[in-house]
Fold this protein.
Amino acid sequence: MTDTKQKVREFYDEIGWQQEDDGHYQNARYEDLRLISSEYIHKTRLRVLNGIIPKGRLMLDAGSGPVQYEEYKAYSQGYQKRVCLDISIQALREARERIDGHGLFVVGDLANLPFKRESFDGAVSMHAIHHLALTEHLRAYSEIHRVLVNGRTAAIVNGWHEPLLSRLA
């Protein structure tokens, strides 16, 4: 494991996925959780459903974290099982508490998925790839594509940034 990946794992195991007294995770301090933003954020998270085929046997959640929002649970409702892959053992413990019998939990690396080609009917990856070294981003996208059944889709969110074309206009 690279030094960067080890540091990411340590941060999320020891700090990021520790619950605060208010029920949020320590990592939430970097998110907009204001009441005034809640409806917008809710709708934004649900837009991910537009990018995936809504049912199948297995759905990969690549870099699942603890599946910390209710909207995240909706992504796999039409699937028999959700396979949560994360580098953080703490994230997977928390995810197991949230989705229990609906999930399978795998410690792994986004850039080197431990699954056979065409294993999944759908995939999501929410705000995870940016934790990899920039040189591994393309590899992570390729790995998600490799494990998808031909003709199936993935929704990958690597930040809610302004589209590049909008900035160039």
Observations:
- Strands lie at 56-62, 79-86, 103-107, 120-126, 148-157.
- The radius of gyration is 16 Å.
- The chain has a mean pLDDT of 86.
